[in-house]
Amino acid sequence: MSQASIFIVEDELIEAEDIRQTLEKQGYTVAGSARSGESVLELLTTIHPDLVLMDIHLAGILDGIDTAGKIRNLYHLPVIFLTAYADEITLGRAKYTEPYGYVLKPFDERELHSAIEMALYKHRMEERSKENERTIRILANAIPDAVMLLDKDRNIISQNDAMARRLGLDYTRSQQGCACPFDQNGMFPSLELKIQEITSSGRPIRFEEKSGNEWFEISLILIPGLEGRNPRIFVQFHDITAYKRFEEQLKKEGITRIEHNMEQFQILNDQIRNPLQAIMGYVNLDCVHYRDRILEQIGLINNLVSRLDQGWVESDKVRRFLLVRYRSASDDFAPDDVSVPSPGEKSKGV
Amino acid sequence: MYTVLIVDDDPAIREIFTIYLEMRAYRVLTAAGGRECLDLLNTQIPDLILLDMMMEPMDGWETLLAIRSRSASRAIPVIIITGKEATPEEILQYGILIEDFIVKPVDFKRISASFHLIIEKDQVLRREIERIKETEQDPELPGEYTHLLRLVRVAKNLMARSRDRPWADQIPLKKHEERLQWLHKKLGFPDLLLQRDEIE
After folding, report:
1. Helix (H, G, I), strand (E, B) or coil at B137
2. Which residues pair with A102 in a beta bridge?
3. Is the complex ipTM more than 0.85?
4. DSSP H/E element including B152
5. In this predicted model, what pLDDT tens digit does every residue of A254-312 receive, in sequence order?
Protein backbone atom coordinates (compact mmCIF):
# COMPACT_ATOMS: atom_id res chain seq x y z
CA MET A 1 0.00 0.00 0.00
CA SER A 2 1.47 3.30 -1.06
CA GLN A 3 1.85 5.77 1.68
CA ALA A 4 0.57 9.26 1.43
CA SER A 5 2.72 12.24 0.67
CA ILE A 6 2.73 15.03 3.18
CA PHE A 7 3.75 18.65 2.98
CA ILE A 8 5.18 20.28 6.07
CA VAL A 9 4.72 23.93 6.90
CA GLU A 10 6.81 24.87 9.91
CA ASP A 11 8.99 27.86 10.41
CA GLU A 12 11.24 26.41 13.14
CA LEU A 13 13.93 24.38 11.37
CA ILE A 14 14.55 21.91 14.16
CA GLU A 15 10.83 21.19 14.51
CA ALA A 16 10.51 20.76 10.79
CA GLU A 17 13.37 18.29 10.67
CA ASP A 18 11.93 16.35 13.57
CA ILE A 19 8.58 16.08 11.88
CA ARG A 20 10.19 15.00 8.63
CA GLN A 21 12.09 12.19 10.29
CA THR A 22 9.02 11.01 12.14
CA LEU A 23 6.94 10.95 9.03
CA GLU A 24 9.52 9.07 7.02
CA LYS A 25 9.90 6.58 9.82
CA GLN A 26 6.17 6.00 9.64
CA GLY A 27 6.47 5.31 5.97
CA TYR A 28 5.08 8.57 4.61
CA THR A 29 6.67 10.49 1.81
CA VAL A 30 7.49 14.08 2.58
CA ALA A 31 6.44 16.00 -0.50
CA GLY A 32 8.19 19.17 0.56
CA SER A 33 8.36 21.78 3.24
CA ALA A 34 7.94 25.51 3.60
CA ARG A 35 8.57 28.06 6.29
CA SER A 36 5.80 30.54 5.56
CA GLY A 37 2.28 30.85 4.27
CA GLU A 38 3.25 32.65 1.12
CA SER A 39 5.83 30.12 0.09
CA VAL A 40 3.61 27.07 0.66
CA LEU A 41 0.88 28.55 -1.46
CA GLU A 42 3.35 29.10 -4.23
CA LEU A 43 4.90 25.65 -3.90
CA LEU A 44 1.54 23.92 -3.95
CA THR A 45 1.02 25.08 -7.49
CA THR A 46 3.56 22.50 -8.57
CA ILE A 47 3.72 20.03 -5.69
CA HIS A 48 0.63 17.89 -5.05
CA PRO A 49 0.70 16.28 -1.62
CA ASP A 50 -2.14 14.29 -0.09
CA LEU A 51 -2.13 16.27 3.13
CA VAL A 52 -0.61 19.39 4.70
CA LEU A 53 0.78 19.52 8.23
CA MET A 54 0.87 23.10 9.34
CA ASP A 55 1.99 25.02 12.38
CA ILE A 56 -0.77 27.25 13.50
CA HIS A 57 1.53 30.13 14.36
CA LEU A 58 3.59 30.92 11.34
CA ALA A 59 5.72 33.96 11.06
CA GLY A 60 4.93 36.22 8.19
CA ILE A 61 1.89 38.01 6.93
CA LEU A 62 -0.16 34.91 6.40
CA ASP A 63 -0.37 32.98 9.60
CA GLY A 64 -1.22 29.29 9.72
CA ILE A 65 -4.94 29.68 9.97
CA ASP A 66 -5.31 32.00 7.03
CA THR A 67 -3.00 29.84 4.97
CA ALA A 68 -4.97 26.71 5.82
CA GLY A 69 -8.11 28.44 4.69
CA LYS A 70 -6.55 29.31 1.38
CA ILE A 71 -5.20 25.79 0.92
CA ARG A 72 -8.68 24.38 1.46
CA ASN A 73 -10.30 26.72 -1.02
CA LEU A 74 -7.63 26.66 -3.70
CA TYR A 75 -6.28 23.15 -3.56
CA HIS A 76 -8.94 21.21 -1.61
CA LEU A 77 -6.29 19.56 0.52
CA PRO A 78 -6.77 18.27 4.06
CA VAL A 79 -4.83 20.33 6.65
CA ILE A 80 -3.77 19.22 10.12
CA PHE A 81 -2.72 21.93 12.54
CA LEU A 82 0.25 21.59 14.78
CA THR A 83 -0.11 23.76 17.79
CA ALA A 84 2.03 24.39 20.81
CA TYR A 85 -0.77 25.31 23.05
CA ALA A 86 -4.52 25.33 22.92
CA ASP A 87 -5.25 28.98 22.54
CA GLU A 88 -9.00 29.49 22.70
CA ILE A 89 -9.16 32.42 20.34
CA THR A 90 -6.86 30.79 17.89
CA LEU A 91 -8.82 27.57 17.99
CA GLY A 92 -12.01 29.50 17.45
CA ARG A 93 -10.67 31.05 14.29
CA ALA A 94 -9.15 27.78 13.23
CA LYS A 95 -12.55 26.11 13.19
CA TYR A 96 -13.59 28.05 10.13
CA THR A 97 -10.90 26.56 8.00
CA GLU A 98 -12.35 23.11 8.60
CA PRO A 99 -9.12 21.49 9.71
CA TYR A 100 -9.00 17.78 9.79
CA GLY A 101 -7.44 17.72 13.18
CA TYR A 102 -5.10 19.21 15.69
CA VAL A 103 -1.97 17.73 17.04
CA LEU A 104 -0.40 19.28 20.11
CA LYS A 105 3.28 19.90 20.27
CA PRO A 106 5.32 18.19 21.47
CA PHE A 107 3.49 15.51 19.55
CA ASP A 108 3.12 11.91 20.35
CA GLU A 109 4.15 9.82 17.31
CA ARG A 110 1.19 7.53 17.47
CA GLU A 111 -1.13 10.50 17.85
CA LEU A 112 0.35 12.10 14.75
CA HIS A 113 0.05 8.88 12.77
CA SER A 114 -3.58 8.30 13.66
CA ALA A 115 -4.46 11.95 13.06
CA ILE A 116 -2.94 11.72 9.60
CA GLU A 117 -4.69 8.45 8.76
CA MET A 118 -8.03 9.70 9.98
CA ALA A 119 -7.62 12.93 8.04
CA LEU A 120 -6.75 11.06 4.86
CA TYR A 121 -9.68 8.74 5.30
CA LYS A 122 -12.09 11.55 6.02
CA HIS A 123 -10.82 13.45 3.02
CA ARG A 124 -11.26 10.44 0.75
CA MET A 125 -14.82 10.02 1.96
CA GLU A 126 -15.59 13.66 1.45
CA GLU A 127 -14.16 13.69 -2.03
CA ARG A 128 -16.21 10.64 -2.92
CA SER A 129 -19.31 12.28 -1.55
CA LYS A 130 -18.61 15.47 -3.46
CA GLU A 131 -18.05 13.42 -6.57
CA ASN A 132 -21.42 11.76 -6.09
CA GLU A 133 -23.10 15.07 -5.54
CA ARG A 134 -21.48 16.47 -8.65
CA THR A 135 -22.59 13.47 -10.64
CA ILE A 136 -26.13 13.72 -9.36
CA ARG A 137 -26.28 17.39 -10.12
CA ILE A 138 -24.98 16.89 -13.64
CA LEU A 139 -27.55 14.18 -14.21
CA ALA A 140 -30.33 16.19 -12.64
CA ASN A 141 -29.54 19.16 -14.81
CA ALA A 142 -29.36 17.02 -17.89
CA ILE A 143 -32.93 15.80 -17.69
CA PRO A 144 -35.62 18.00 -19.19
CA ASP A 145 -38.08 17.29 -16.40
CA ALA A 146 -38.19 19.80 -13.58
CA VAL A 147 -37.27 18.10 -10.33
CA MET A 148 -36.93 19.40 -6.80
CA LEU A 149 -36.40 18.26 -3.28
CA LEU A 150 -38.69 19.59 -0.57
CA ASP A 151 -38.35 19.49 3.17
CA LYS A 152 -41.29 18.75 5.41
CA ASP A 153 -42.18 22.43 5.57
CA ARG A 154 -42.56 22.50 1.80
CA ASN A 155 -39.41 24.56 1.31
CA ILE A 156 -37.28 23.73 -1.67
CA ILE A 157 -34.01 22.20 -0.54
CA SER A 158 -32.61 21.88 -4.03
CA GLN A 159 -33.76 21.88 -7.62
CA ASN A 160 -32.35 21.22 -11.07
CA ASP A 161 -31.93 23.77 -13.85
CA ALA A 162 -35.24 22.88 -15.45
CA MET A 163 -37.02 23.53 -12.18
CA ALA A 164 -35.11 26.75 -11.61
CA ARG A 165 -36.25 27.93 -15.02
CA ARG A 166 -39.82 27.03 -14.27
CA LEU A 167 -39.74 28.82 -10.95
CA GLY A 168 -38.04 31.79 -12.56
CA LEU A 169 -35.01 31.50 -10.29
CA ASP A 170 -31.69 33.12 -10.92
CA TYR A 171 -29.36 30.52 -12.40
CA THR A 172 -26.46 31.36 -10.17
CA ARG A 173 -28.52 30.29 -7.22
CA SER A 174 -29.57 27.02 -8.70
CA GLN A 175 -26.78 25.19 -7.02
CA GLN A 176 -28.52 25.45 -3.71
CA GLY A 177 -32.14 25.27 -2.96
CA CYS A 178 -34.03 28.51 -3.00
CA ALA A 179 -35.31 27.76 0.48
CA CYS A 180 -38.61 29.21 -0.53
CA PRO A 181 -41.97 27.58 -0.23
CA PHE A 182 -42.85 25.85 -3.45
CA ASP A 183 -45.84 26.73 -5.60
CA GLN A 184 -46.38 30.20 -4.30
CA ASN A 185 -48.61 30.97 -7.25
CA GLY A 186 -50.86 28.03 -6.68
CA MET A 187 -50.12 26.59 -10.09
CA PHE A 188 -50.61 23.06 -8.85
CA PRO A 189 -53.55 22.90 -6.48
CA SER A 190 -53.45 19.15 -5.90
CA LEU A 191 -49.80 19.12 -4.95
CA GLU A 192 -50.31 20.02 -1.29
CA LEU A 193 -52.87 17.25 -0.83
CA LYS A 194 -50.65 14.73 -2.54
CA ILE A 195 -47.72 15.72 -0.34
CA GLN A 196 -49.86 15.14 2.73
CA GLU A 197 -50.88 11.80 1.30
CA ILE A 198 -47.34 10.64 0.69
CA THR A 199 -46.15 11.89 4.06
CA SER A 200 -48.58 9.56 5.77
CA SER A 201 -48.53 6.59 3.41
CA GLY A 202 -44.87 6.67 2.38
CA ARG A 203 -45.70 5.12 -0.98
CA PRO A 204 -44.70 6.84 -4.22
CA ILE A 205 -47.47 8.76 -5.94
CA ARG A 206 -47.95 9.60 -9.58
CA PHE A 207 -50.77 11.76 -10.87
CA GLU A 208 -51.72 14.06 -13.72
CA GLU A 209 -52.56 17.72 -13.38
CA LYS A 210 -53.36 20.55 -15.72
CA SER A 211 -51.74 23.89 -14.98
CA GLY A 212 -52.67 26.74 -17.27
CA ASN A 213 -52.28 25.37 -20.79
CA GLU A 214 -49.92 22.61 -19.83
CA TRP A 215 -50.43 19.09 -18.65
CA PHE A 216 -48.01 17.40 -16.27
CA GLU A 217 -47.47 13.95 -14.91
CA ILE A 218 -46.20 14.59 -11.39
CA SER A 219 -44.29 11.99 -9.40
CA LEU A 220 -43.64 12.15 -5.67
CA ILE A 221 -41.18 10.02 -3.73
CA LEU A 222 -40.69 10.19 0.01
CA ILE A 223 -37.08 10.01 1.19
CA PRO A 224 -37.19 9.19 4.88
CA GLY A 225 -34.72 11.02 7.08
CA LEU A 226 -32.63 9.51 9.81
CA GLU A 227 -34.75 8.04 12.58
CA GLY A 228 -37.85 9.20 10.74
CA ARG A 229 -37.12 12.86 11.25
CA ASN A 230 -36.71 15.42 8.49
CA PRO A 231 -38.13 13.45 5.61
CA ARG A 232 -37.58 14.90 2.19
CA ILE A 233 -39.91 14.75 -0.77
CA PHE A 234 -38.70 14.34 -4.31
CA VAL A 235 -41.02 15.96 -6.85
CA GLN A 236 -40.79 15.48 -10.60
CA PHE A 237 -42.81 17.32 -13.24
CA HIS A 238 -43.03 15.51 -16.54
CA ASP A 239 -44.54 17.57 -19.34
CA ILE A 240 -47.26 15.59 -21.11
CA THR A 241 -48.97 18.49 -22.85
CA ALA A 242 -48.12 17.29 -26.34
CA TYR A 243 -49.28 13.79 -25.50
CA LYS A 244 -52.60 15.02 -24.10
CA ARG A 245 -53.21 17.18 -27.15
CA PHE A 246 -52.43 14.21 -29.36
CA GLU A 247 -54.83 12.09 -27.34
CA GLU A 248 -57.56 14.68 -27.74
CA GLN A 249 -56.92 14.88 -31.43
CA LEU A 250 -57.08 11.13 -31.77
CA LYS A 251 -60.32 11.07 -29.87
CA LYS A 252 -61.73 13.75 -32.13
CA GLU A 253 -60.47 11.96 -35.21
CA GLY A 254 -61.71 8.68 -33.85
CA ILE A 255 -65.11 10.18 -33.31
CA THR A 256 -65.05 11.71 -36.75
CA ARG A 257 -64.14 8.37 -38.22
CA ILE A 258 -66.94 6.66 -36.33
CA GLU A 259 -69.38 9.29 -37.47
CA HIS A 260 -68.21 8.84 -41.03
CA ASN A 261 -68.62 5.11 -40.78
CA MET A 262 -72.05 5.56 -39.33
CA GLU A 263 -72.93 7.80 -42.21
CA GLN A 264 -71.82 5.12 -44.64
CA PHE A 265 -73.82 2.65 -42.68
CA GLN A 266 -76.86 4.91 -42.88
CA ILE A 267 -76.69 4.94 -46.63
CA LEU A 268 -76.63 1.18 -46.56
CA ASN A 269 -79.59 1.30 -44.22
CA ASP A 270 -81.66 3.02 -46.85
CA GLN A 271 -80.99 0.22 -49.29
CA ILE A 272 -82.37 -2.20 -46.75
CA ARG A 273 -85.08 -0.03 -45.25
CA ASN A 274 -86.84 0.77 -48.47
CA PRO A 275 -87.37 -2.87 -49.46
CA LEU A 276 -88.42 -3.64 -45.88
CA GLN A 277 -90.89 -0.79 -45.98
CA ALA A 278 -92.32 -2.06 -49.21
CA ILE A 279 -92.50 -5.64 -47.92
CA MET A 280 -94.26 -4.52 -44.74
CA GLY A 281 -96.71 -2.54 -46.76
CA TYR A 282 -97.54 -5.33 -49.16
CA VAL A 283 -97.74 -7.97 -46.47
CA ASN A 284 -100.16 -5.81 -44.48
CA LEU A 285 -102.37 -5.50 -47.51
CA ASP A 286 -102.71 -9.24 -47.26
CA CYS A 287 -103.58 -9.66 -50.87
CA VAL A 288 -102.28 -12.41 -53.12
CA HIS A 289 -102.20 -9.87 -55.90
CA TYR A 290 -99.04 -8.39 -54.44
CA ARG A 291 -97.15 -11.64 -54.04
CA ASP A 292 -94.84 -10.84 -56.94
CA ARG A 293 -94.04 -7.45 -55.52
CA ILE A 294 -93.08 -9.00 -52.19
CA LEU A 295 -90.81 -11.54 -53.80
CA GLU A 296 -89.24 -8.77 -55.86
CA GLN A 297 -88.37 -6.79 -52.74
CA ILE A 298 -87.07 -9.89 -51.01
CA GLY A 299 -84.83 -10.42 -54.01
CA LEU A 300 -83.42 -6.92 -53.57
CA ILE A 301 -82.50 -7.63 -49.98
CA ASN A 302 -80.96 -10.92 -50.94
CA ASN A 303 -78.81 -9.23 -53.54
CA LEU A 304 -77.65 -6.75 -51.00
CA VAL A 305 -76.70 -9.48 -48.55
CA SER A 306 -74.85 -11.33 -51.31
CA ARG A 307 -72.88 -8.22 -52.08
CA LEU A 308 -72.00 -7.89 -48.44
CA ASP A 309 -70.98 -11.54 -48.43
CA GLN A 310 -68.76 -10.95 -51.41
CA GLY A 311 -67.08 -8.10 -49.68
CA TRP A 312 -66.42 -10.34 -46.73
CA VAL A 313 -65.00 -13.07 -48.91
CA GLU A 314 -62.69 -10.61 -50.57
CA SER A 315 -61.42 -9.36 -47.28
CA ASP A 316 -61.01 -12.93 -46.10
CA LYS A 317 -58.76 -13.64 -49.07
CA VAL A 318 -56.66 -10.64 -48.13
CA ARG A 319 -56.50 -11.81 -44.55
CA ARG A 320 -55.28 -15.25 -45.51
CA PHE A 321 -52.67 -13.79 -47.80
CA LEU A 322 -51.33 -11.63 -45.04
CA LEU A 323 -51.25 -14.53 -42.61
CA VAL A 324 -49.20 -16.64 -44.99
CA ARG A 325 -46.89 -13.86 -45.93
CA TYR A 326 -46.14 -12.50 -42.51
CA ARG A 327 -46.58 -15.56 -40.41
CA SER A 328 -44.38 -15.54 -37.32
CA ALA A 329 -42.51 -18.64 -36.24
CA SER A 330 -44.78 -19.19 -33.28
CA ASP A 331 -47.98 -19.29 -35.28
CA ASP A 332 -50.28 -22.01 -33.96
CA PHE A 333 -52.28 -22.60 -37.07
CA ALA A 334 -51.62 -23.16 -40.75
CA PRO A 335 -53.48 -20.93 -43.21
CA ASP A 336 -55.61 -23.83 -44.37
CA ASP A 337 -57.12 -24.09 -40.94
CA VAL A 338 -58.49 -20.60 -41.18
CA SER A 339 -62.11 -21.31 -41.94
CA VAL A 340 -64.22 -18.52 -40.60
CA PRO A 341 -67.82 -18.72 -41.79
CA SER A 342 -68.94 -15.65 -43.68
CA PRO A 343 -72.03 -13.93 -42.32
CA GLY A 344 -74.26 -14.88 -45.24
CA GLU A 345 -73.78 -18.58 -44.92
CA LYS A 346 -76.26 -18.92 -42.11
CA SER A 347 -78.92 -16.65 -43.47
CA LYS A 348 -79.14 -17.69 -47.09
CA GLY A 349 -82.68 -17.50 -48.31
CA VAL A 350 -84.58 -14.83 -46.42
CA MET B 1 -110.84 15.05 -50.39
CA TYR B 2 -107.20 15.89 -49.82
CA THR B 3 -104.31 15.59 -52.23
CA VAL B 4 -100.99 14.11 -51.15
CA LEU B 5 -97.76 14.35 -53.12
CA ILE B 6 -95.24 11.52 -52.64
CA VAL B 7 -91.63 12.33 -53.50
CA ASP B 8 -89.34 9.26 -53.47
CA ASP B 9 -86.89 7.79 -55.97
CA ASP B 10 -87.84 4.21 -55.16
CA PRO B 11 -90.79 3.08 -57.31
CA ALA B 12 -91.78 0.40 -54.79
CA ILE B 13 -92.17 3.06 -52.11
CA ARG B 14 -94.18 5.27 -54.41
CA GLU B 15 -96.44 2.38 -55.27
CA ILE B 16 -97.04 1.09 -51.76
CA PHE B 17 -97.71 4.52 -50.32
CA THR B 18 -100.05 5.29 -53.18
CA ILE B 19 -102.05 2.12 -52.47
CA TYR B 20 -102.49 3.00 -48.82
CA LEU B 21 -103.37 6.63 -49.44
CA GLU B 22 -105.91 5.83 -52.12
CA MET B 23 -107.44 3.33 -49.72
CA ARG B 24 -107.99 6.25 -47.41
CA ALA B 25 -109.59 8.30 -50.14
CA TYR B 26 -106.67 10.63 -50.77
CA ARG B 27 -105.84 11.78 -54.24
CA VAL B 28 -102.23 10.89 -54.86
CA LEU B 29 -99.54 12.57 -56.91
CA THR B 30 -96.03 11.17 -57.25
CA ALA B 31 -92.60 12.49 -58.17
CA ALA B 32 -89.37 10.51 -58.48
CA GLY B 33 -87.06 13.33 -57.44
CA GLY B 34 -86.69 16.95 -56.45
CA ARG B 35 -86.79 18.32 -59.98
CA GLU B 36 -89.98 16.47 -60.83
CA CYS B 37 -91.51 17.57 -57.54
CA LEU B 38 -90.85 21.26 -58.20
CA ASP B 39 -92.13 21.02 -61.76
CA LEU B 40 -95.31 19.43 -60.46
CA LEU B 41 -95.76 22.18 -57.89
CA ASN B 42 -95.86 24.73 -60.70
CA THR B 43 -99.23 23.48 -61.77
CA GLN B 44 -100.71 21.72 -58.75
CA ILE B 45 -100.81 22.45 -55.03
CA PRO B 46 -101.25 19.38 -52.84
CA ASP B 47 -102.47 19.53 -49.24
CA LEU B 48 -99.54 17.50 -47.96
CA ILE B 49 -96.12 16.43 -49.22
CA LEU B 50 -94.33 13.23 -48.18
CA LEU B 51 -90.65 13.73 -48.86
CA ASP B 52 -87.75 11.28 -48.98
CA MET B 53 -84.22 12.43 -48.13
CA MET B 54 -81.95 10.07 -50.05
CA MET B 55 -82.41 11.18 -53.61
CA GLU B 56 -80.12 12.14 -56.46
CA PRO B 57 -79.23 14.68 -57.80
CA MET B 58 -81.32 16.96 -55.55
CA ASP B 59 -81.48 15.52 -52.06
CA GLY B 60 -84.39 15.93 -49.67
CA TRP B 61 -83.07 19.02 -47.85
CA GLU B 62 -82.43 20.85 -51.07
CA THR B 63 -85.90 19.99 -52.32
CA LEU B 64 -87.41 21.11 -49.04
CA LEU B 65 -85.68 24.46 -49.19
CA ALA B 66 -86.84 24.93 -52.75
CA ILE B 67 -90.42 24.14 -51.78
CA ARG B 68 -90.29 26.58 -48.89
CA SER B 69 -88.79 29.36 -50.93
CA ARG B 70 -91.54 29.47 -53.57
CA SER B 71 -94.55 31.49 -52.63
CA ALA B 72 -97.02 29.03 -54.14
CA SER B 73 -95.75 26.07 -52.16
CA ARG B 74 -94.35 27.84 -49.11
CA ALA B 75 -97.15 26.89 -46.78
CA ILE B 76 -97.73 23.27 -47.80
CA PRO B 77 -97.12 20.95 -44.83
CA VAL B 78 -94.23 18.53 -45.44
CA ILE B 79 -93.56 15.27 -43.67
CA ILE B 80 -90.21 13.63 -44.22
CA ILE B 81 -90.27 9.84 -44.47
CA THR B 82 -86.82 8.50 -45.05
CA GLY B 83 -84.31 5.72 -44.37
CA LYS B 84 -81.67 7.89 -42.74
CA GLU B 85 -81.67 9.30 -39.22
CA ALA B 86 -81.32 13.03 -38.78
CA THR B 87 -78.41 14.69 -37.04
CA PRO B 88 -79.10 17.29 -34.37
CA GLU B 89 -77.75 19.99 -36.69
CA GLU B 90 -80.28 18.96 -39.30
CA ILE B 91 -83.10 19.00 -36.76
CA LEU B 92 -82.19 22.48 -35.61
CA GLN B 93 -81.78 23.74 -39.12
CA TYR B 94 -84.72 22.11 -40.87
CA GLY B 95 -87.04 21.23 -38.03
CA ILE B 96 -88.77 24.57 -38.35
CA LEU B 97 -89.71 23.80 -41.93
CA ILE B 98 -91.38 20.42 -41.54
CA GLU B 99 -94.29 18.86 -39.70
CA ASP B 100 -92.56 15.62 -38.80
CA PHE B 101 -89.53 13.44 -39.47
CA ILE B 102 -90.18 9.70 -39.71
CA VAL B 103 -87.66 6.95 -40.29
CA LYS B 104 -88.52 3.95 -42.46
CA PRO B 105 -89.80 1.35 -42.19
CA VAL B 106 -93.12 2.62 -40.82
CA ASP B 107 -96.47 1.06 -40.43
CA PHE B 108 -97.92 3.14 -43.18
CA LYS B 109 -101.42 2.07 -42.43
CA ARG B 110 -101.19 3.65 -39.00
CA ILE B 111 -99.46 6.85 -39.84
CA SER B 112 -101.64 7.62 -42.81
CA ALA B 113 -104.55 7.73 -40.38
CA SER B 114 -103.23 10.96 -38.88
CA PHE B 115 -102.49 12.77 -42.11
CA HIS B 116 -105.86 14.47 -42.29
CA LEU B 117 -105.36 15.85 -38.77
CA ILE B 118 -102.09 17.39 -39.84
CA ILE B 119 -103.67 18.88 -42.92
CA GLU B 120 -106.59 20.30 -40.96
CA LYS B 121 -104.40 21.80 -38.27
CA ASP B 122 -102.33 23.40 -40.95
CA GLN B 123 -105.41 24.95 -42.51
CA VAL B 124 -106.56 26.28 -39.15
CA LEU B 125 -103.12 27.79 -38.61
CA ARG B 126 -103.21 29.52 -41.96
CA ARG B 127 -106.65 30.95 -41.29
CA GLU B 128 -105.53 32.25 -37.93
CA ILE B 129 -102.45 33.85 -39.43
CA GLU B 130 -104.61 35.65 -41.98
CA ARG B 131 -106.86 36.85 -39.17
CA ILE B 132 -103.88 38.15 -37.20
CA LYS B 133 -102.77 40.19 -40.20
CA GLU B 134 -105.88 42.35 -39.76
CA THR B 135 -105.00 43.15 -36.16
CA GLU B 136 -102.32 45.30 -34.54
CA GLN B 137 -100.14 42.31 -33.69
CA ASP B 138 -96.46 42.30 -34.52
CA PRO B 139 -96.25 40.71 -38.01
CA GLU B 140 -93.10 38.74 -37.09
CA LEU B 141 -94.84 36.71 -34.40
CA PRO B 142 -96.98 34.37 -36.53
CA GLY B 143 -93.88 33.31 -38.48
CA GLU B 144 -92.00 32.59 -35.28
CA TYR B 145 -94.99 30.70 -33.93
CA THR B 146 -95.17 28.48 -37.01
CA HIS B 147 -91.48 27.70 -36.79
CA LEU B 148 -91.58 26.87 -33.10
CA LEU B 149 -94.72 24.81 -33.49
CA ARG B 150 -93.00 22.63 -36.04
CA LEU B 151 -89.66 22.40 -34.24
CA VAL B 152 -91.23 21.41 -30.96
CA ARG B 153 -93.41 18.80 -32.58
CA VAL B 154 -90.58 17.27 -34.61
CA ALA B 155 -88.17 17.21 -31.67
CA LYS B 156 -90.73 15.71 -29.30
CA ASN B 157 -91.77 13.04 -31.77
CA LEU B 158 -88.19 12.06 -32.46
CA MET B 159 -87.38 11.87 -28.79
CA ALA B 160 -90.49 9.84 -28.06
CA ARG B 161 -89.72 7.33 -30.78
CA SER B 162 -86.16 6.56 -29.79
CA ARG B 163 -85.14 6.86 -26.18
CA ASP B 164 -81.38 6.93 -26.59
CA ARG B 165 -81.01 10.05 -28.67
CA PRO B 166 -77.68 11.48 -27.52
CA TRP B 167 -78.37 14.80 -29.11
CA ALA B 168 -81.55 15.45 -27.13
CA ASP B 169 -79.58 17.73 -24.82
CA GLN B 170 -78.43 19.87 -27.71
CA ILE B 171 -81.94 21.11 -28.43
CA PRO B 172 -83.24 23.39 -25.68
CA LEU B 173 -86.72 22.02 -25.97
CA LYS B 174 -88.08 23.47 -22.74
CA LYS B 175 -87.06 26.96 -23.72
CA HIS B 176 -88.75 26.63 -27.08
CA GLU B 177 -91.91 25.18 -25.56
CA GLU B 178 -92.20 28.05 -23.12
CA ARG B 179 -91.81 30.58 -25.86
CA LEU B 180 -94.37 28.72 -27.95
CA GLN B 181 -96.90 28.76 -25.09
CA TRP B 182 -96.36 32.46 -24.61
CA LEU B 183 -96.84 33.21 -28.30
CA HIS B 184 -99.90 31.00 -28.41
CA LYS B 185 -101.52 33.05 -25.66
CA LYS B 186 -100.45 36.35 -27.10
CA LEU B 187 -101.78 35.56 -30.54
CA GLY B 188 -104.94 34.02 -29.15
CA PHE B 189 -104.69 30.89 -31.29
CA PRO B 190 -107.02 27.91 -30.75
CA ASP B 191 -105.74 25.10 -28.55
CA LEU B 192 -106.31 22.60 -31.36
CA LEU B 193 -103.01 23.72 -32.83
CA LEU B 194 -101.04 22.62 -29.79
CA GLN B 195 -102.66 19.21 -29.61
CA ARG B 196 -100.19 16.36 -29.96
CA ASP B 197 -101.02 14.03 -32.81
CA GLU B 198 -99.18 10.81 -32.11
CA ILE B 199 -98.17 9.46 -35.48
CA GLU B 200 -96.31 6.51 -34.02
Report:
1. coil
2. A81
3. no
4. helix B140-161
5. 777 777 766 666 667 777 888 888 888 888 887 778 888 888 888 888 888 777 777 66
User: Which residue, of A185, A213, A239, is where some domain finishes?
Assistant: A239
Sorted by sequence, the CB contacts under 8 Å of residue A179 that are 6+ apart come out as A155, A156, A157
Dihedral angle computed from the Cα positions of residues A122, A123, A126 and A131, in that order, rounded to the nearest 10 degrees: -150
DSSP per-residue codes, A173-191 = GTTS---SBS-TT-S-HHH
Measured between beta carbons, the chain B residues lying within 8 angstroms of A278 are: 10, 12-13, 15-16
Check A277 against B15: CB less than 8 A apart: no
Give how many domains chain B has, as a whole number: 1
Average pLDDT over residues B47-59: 90
Q: Which residue of A has its CA nearest to B108?
A: A281
With residue B82 as reference, give the H or E element that holds it: strand B78-82
Domain that holds residue B106: 3-194
Task: Report the residue from B20, B83, B85 with minimal CB separation from A274.
Answer: B83
Please tell me whether residues A291 and A340 are part of one structural domain: yes
- Closest residue on chain B to A271 (Cα): B83
Tens of pLDDT, residues B143-199: 899 999 998 888 888 877 766 566 666 778 888 899 999 999 988 899 888 887 665
Q: Is B85 on the interface with A (CB under 8 A)?
A: yes
Q: In DSSP terms, which residues pair with B51 in a beta bridge?
A: B7, B80
Q: What is the pTM of this model?
A: 0.48
**Residue A131 and residue A23 in one domain:** yes
Q: Is B86 on the interface with A (CB under 8 A)?
A: no
Query: In this complex, is the C-beta atom of B13 within 8 Å of any C-beta atom belonging to chain A?
Result: yes
Residue B78 forms part of a structural domain: yes
Q: What stretch of H or E contains A79?
A: strand A79-83
Which residue in chain A has the smallest CA separation from B12?
A: A278
Is A303 in CB contact (< 8 Å) with chain B?
Answer: no
Q: Residue B61: which residues within 8 A CB-CB, separation 6 or more? A: B53, B90, B94
> Can you give the CATH number for the domain in which B122 is found?
3.40.50.2300
Q: What total number of domains does chain A contain?
A: 3
C-beta atoms of A281 and B108 within 8 A = yes
Instruction: Band the pLDDT of B38: cuts 50, 70, 90.
Output: very high
User: Domain holding A48: CATH number?
Assistant: 3.40.50.2300
**Per-residue pLDDT at A251:** 78
Query: pLDDT below 50 — which residues of chain A?
Result: 1, 172, 174, 329-330, 332-350
Chain A interface includes B130 (CB < 8 A): no
Q: Do residues A148 and A111 share a domain?
A: no
Domain hosting residue A341, numbered range: 245-345
